[in-house]
Specification:
2 copies of one chain form a homodimer. Chain A is of the alpha/beta class. Chain A is globular, with a radius of gyration of 27 Å. In chain A, strand 24 (about 480) and strand 25 form a beta hairpin. Chain A folds into 5 domains: about 5-95, Ubiquitin-like (UB roll), CATH 3.10.20.30; about 130-205, Ubiquitin-like (UB roll) (Roll); about 220-350, Domain of unknown function (DUF4445) (Nucleotidyltransferase, domain 5, 2-Layer Sandwich), CATH 3.30.420; about 360-405 and about 510-635, Nucleotidyltransferase, domain 5 (2-Layer Sandwich), CATH 3.30.420; about 415-495, no CATH class. Chain A has 16 helices and 29 strands. At the A-B interface, helix 4 and helix 5 of A face helix 4 and helix 5 of B.
């Protein structure tokens, strides 16, 4: 009875799957299409894939990542557990993707809401990458006997300066019939392919009113798509989803390893499906025909773009960190399975390097650092934490390897900016905790802005010291569990999960590590140019925090350099903003290539002095508080 | 028993095919893959598809195209005959394709032999459209961390000026592995695509010695292919075959009609198969690997190129004669099913118009008319008879609709330049006929140069008068058959077929019509520029006549303008010569686009005065012999 199958029931989804005896619970969940959080991709080291066994027995490997209390309640790590007989499993709230549906709706609204902050319509010429031209070709006669193909080009050139044009056989094969059946009245769809303009489609009559594009932010965690009317630059709708590659690892590196050692196609399939689902939602909701979507532009980090295009990402994680391409060519979207007009084009924004991708290029574009007189710093707090510094004369950048702590990963009750996430926290003088959640519902966990707030407030209240150590004398909210101190942010009575929402010692250490990495990166960039923080005229903070980020508290935490708060500007998701701008303007797309080329990348891991900077930054706000003169003044800090 | 099948045996091939009762013999032959001549494509009007019924009965439509004698011998027209019971058919020599195998071998030699006349190696820079570059990319490190893709471009640009480059995902997908497994030592195959240079292939190590291209003359009758070493411009081998589209009609117009009304795919399939067969013969004979053939360049008339690329040719035959394209884009050869390197490129030389194609562009290129001070005329005597006149300041051209008489079609014993074709004819003072055949074997028929010789000699001997009328008083070789006069060129006793080889009255009329069309075209072009024939400094005669053409006799016939014989130069197959030059030089390919653009096309059918010119030219040499002053002097001609 070797391959005997057993049944696994996943609650609360009522999903049953039959798998061979010995299958891991993580694999079973994947087969049942039940999402279970996992950062390490199944190596038993992140402790995120927590499930509760309700009925039946399981074989599980001992782990230190679950508390005695949790084990007694039936908690197991999905990747470390194998099914041996029929079993009933509960997916606890913290392991759920916060409800795909809820996120999609709310995030879409949120992205719509904060998008204009990133500077829509500000500074680019409307000249979309794919355009429709209505043409009335004069009827040929013996004196004007140009061939259909050349006649078409001549007519296009009467409207536009297009020195280099091309068109495939598929267009030429239908051209004569369409021209003659419509007395020369046709619509040509033209798209930019490098230095060449391609006639990608010919349609009967005037179809120019129907030309749509989709801008996509291909994030490691979330994928955001905006549907755009290419005729007038208007954003018609937005939609977001989790990147379903997460089941293969939450971190970029994990996914590279999965692609390298296991199956790169699965990762491509996952992101292509995500994008196709977003497109299909957007077009059906807005009554747009698939055929009228002629262009898709993706901004994403270098690995995401490699996985999307089916390029081998394996060298990205190995010194000297060489990607296959930092500037992939425009291709037909269908070539990677993306479902828009079958001859529609897919563009990807160029990367600077393996670890500074097209999302950062989009950020530089959106914030206009590359053409400003003043010196600015852009800090994108996402899975990695890319930092760019510069002005129109020079730009330097780095990737801080901060990890996804501020996106809620590696933090026990961390979560992304979605319904029920604690996004603001204040600790009153009497030690009372005030908080607010996204959409005002009962809290489920803490998102990035809530984590920054919490850390700054814990410090200001004296509940943690400069090295992040919890002081159990300071408040009775600090307690011991399994031999570790933790801070109870919200008691079980007030939460959606019915459990206390806490910040543990490892959580605090993770967050300090993440902020130290970012600060050290900012510090290295500044020093590399022989400058001081005082020389920074503006700090742009980007990232998927939702609509809210408390700049003051980011300063207190030492996440960003100590500059006057008015110099700090929260710019939201610059990746999608830049993607839209490039999609809507050939000139702007060209700029992104120049930008990606102009920025000098520093690899922090091998950069002299980075480790010292990082270690020094592992304090709140920093070992050397003289780096935070204004903060010292405001908070009356003293040297330890 | 509606669909009862009957058997048809074709001799001398011993091929049997089973077809439904009522199938035409032409269709049955096609299914048996037995080639039977046909000009009209099955409409019963050309009288070329002659077969002999040896055993069994056939239903046949009465025809005036067979003589009583022939009918008694069992001759039928294949397209007008339907099989009703098992039947045994003999394909007579005149209906055979002169033995595919023989032609291929002999023609290949012939083309090799006369090719240098067309000016190989004369005036182009060696810079093939597809090249292999051996590269040693420096190993990346932290300071030189360019992505593989951009590193490749940088290295290519160290060798060559390539401002605009592109490469598809297929190349990018294999690039990192090949680079690392070979320590950066790779060979990049780069090909010209419009203004862009594409990296079409990456190979391990140094494969540069193996880079081959194929130049193809896609003729209406014959397809000629040359295998070329792209590294040194050397022609390694040549091969020729009949264009197997002939079963769908010998003339261009017939094929257009077939494509339009029946099945365009069959025509594309036929020519693609022909080209694939030529390639496969060439590469196996020369031990070249298919993968090392990276480029194919085709020169052909506009219709042939349309059919090859699968473009709709139907407007080519309708006023105002508009082709789909005069300048088709380079594509991947695999896109039309041509079997070379799967990423290899297919180029087609640009046409001037629907009726002046890339073969003529090749002729202009080869003869250098477009950059000469002197004024030249190029007359290409093929299926149509394209004429170009001009110099570096201006060029005009036309297509004379001469029909394929000089290629042997529409002439009872006409045949192409192949083994056994009579290629030289002399009539001695005593009326004796001297002739020589290709390869010196027993005569099977008369090829183009033999027809020109015969006509001129018949005229000079006084056997035909200026209007081409046979004079039965002049020689006993002129006899009557079925009420028509004919001239016995070779008696049955000397021929391969065991039949007399004759020139009939309709043959002579056809030939005069053909030469008149060409002369009238030449005349119109000259007049259109306000010039006289005297202003022509050089006349180039092109066409697949084999190695021999008697200029003097072409003058006597009035096929070409009366210029001093030393001004006339026979340039052979300029189509293949030009194709090779363009394949071997990017600069030359660029020139062909300029040439095609610069030439002004006159449509003769609608050109004022053309009909008068044509009618006046239907005499030997012309109605107005004052147009032939030198000839008049030499032959002591008098006005009628």
């Amino acid at each position: 009875m070797k391959n005997r199958k057993v049944k696994v029931l996943f609650e609360p989804y009522h999903k049953v799957v039959e798998v061979p005896k010995g299958t891991s619970l993580l694999e079973a969940a994947s087969q049942a299409k039940v999402y279970v959080s996992s950062i390490c991709g199944g190596d038993g080291i992140c402790g995120k894939c927590r499930l509760v066994v309700k009925k039946g027995a399981i074989h599980t490997t001992p782990t230190t990542l679950l508390s005695r209390d949790e084990i007694q309640k039936g908690y197991v790590l999905a990747c470390q557990s194998r099914v041996v007989k029929d079993v009933e499993i509960e997916v606890p709230v913290e392991s759920r993707p916060e409800g795909e549906k809820i996120l999609i709706d709310k995030d879409a609204q949120r992205f719509r809401a904060f998008y204009p902050i990133a500077g829509e319509k500000v500074f680019f010429k409307h000249d979309p990458l794919v355009q429709k031209l209505y043409l009335e070709l004069p009827q040929p006669d013996l004196l004007d006997n140009l061939a259909d193909h050349q006649r078409l080009y001549r007519e296009i050139r009467r409207h536009r300066h297009e020195p280099i044009m091309q068109s495939g056989l598929k267009v030429l094969r239908i051209l004569p019939k369409i021209l003659r059946q419509n007395q020369g009245k046709i619509t040509a769809t033209i798209g930019i392919r490098g230095r060449t303009t391609e006639v990608i489609q010919i349609e009967e009559g005037d179809t120019t009113p129907h030309n749509f594009g989709i801008a996509v932010d291909v994030g490691t965690c979330t994928v955001v798509a905006h549907l755009i009317n290419l005729n007038n630059s208007k954003t018609l709708d937005a939609e977001a989803t989790y990147n379903s590659q997460r089941v293969y690892g939450e971190e970029v590196t994990r996914r590279i390893i999965y692609a390298e050692l296991k199956d790169p196609d699965k990762l491509q399939e996952a992101i292509v499906n995500d994008i196709n689902n977003l497109i299909s939602t957007l077009i059906s909701r807005n009554k747009v025909k698939l055929n009228d979507v002629t262009a898709l532009l993706c901004a994403g980090n270098t690995t995401m773009i490699h996985l999307l295009l089916g390029l081998d990402p394996s060298q990205i994680r190995r010194e000297p960190y060489i990607p296959v391409s930092t500037s992939a060519p425009p291709i037909r979207a269908a070539e990677v399975g993306i479902k828009i007009n079958p001859r529609g084009l897919l563009y990807c924004l160029p990367s600077v390097s393996s670890w500074v991708g097209g999302d950062t290029t989009a950020g530089i574009l959106t914030t206009q650092i590359y053409e400003a007189e003043e010196t600015a710093m852009l800090i994108d707090i996402g899975t990695n934490g890319e930092i760019v510094m510069g002005n129109k004369e020079w730009m330097v950048c780095c990737s801080a390897s901060a990890g996804p702590a501020f996106e809620g990963s590696g933090v026990k009750h961390g979560m992304r900016a979605a319904e029920g996430a604690i996004e603001r926290v204040k600790i009153l003088d009497d030690g009372e905790v005030k908080y607010s959640t996204i959409d005002g519902v009962k809290p489920k966990g803490i998102c990035g802005s809530g984590l920054i707030d919490s850390m700054a407030e814990l410090f200001k209240a004296g509940f943690i010291n400069r090295s992040g150590k919890l002081n159990p004398e300071a408040t009775n909210r600090i307690r011991e569990r399994d031999g570790e101190l933790e801070f109870v942010l919200v008691p079980a009575s007030e939460t959606e999960t019915g459990e206390d929402i806490v910040l543990t010692r490892p959580d605090i250490e993770n967050l300090i590590r993440a902020k130290a990495a970012i600060f050290a990166g900012a510090s290295i960039l500044t020093k590399s140019m022989g400058l001081e923080f005082d020389d920074i005229d503006r700090v742009y903070l980007a990232g998927g925090f939702g609509s809210y980020l408390n700049k003051e508290k980011a300063l207190v935490l030492g996440l960003i350099p100590d500059v006057a708060p008015e110099k700090v500007q929260f710019v939201g998701n610059t990746s999608i903003a830049g993607a839209k701008m490039a999609l809507l303007s050939k000139e702007t797309l060209d700029k992104t290539y120049k930008i990606a080329h102009q920025v000098t990348y520093y690899d922090l891991i091998t950069y002299p002095g980075y480790m010292d900077e990082f270690m020094s930054a592992k304090f709140i706000p920093h070992t050397d508080i003289s780096k935070f003169p204004s903060l010292v003044k405001r908070l009356k800090l003293k040297e330890d």
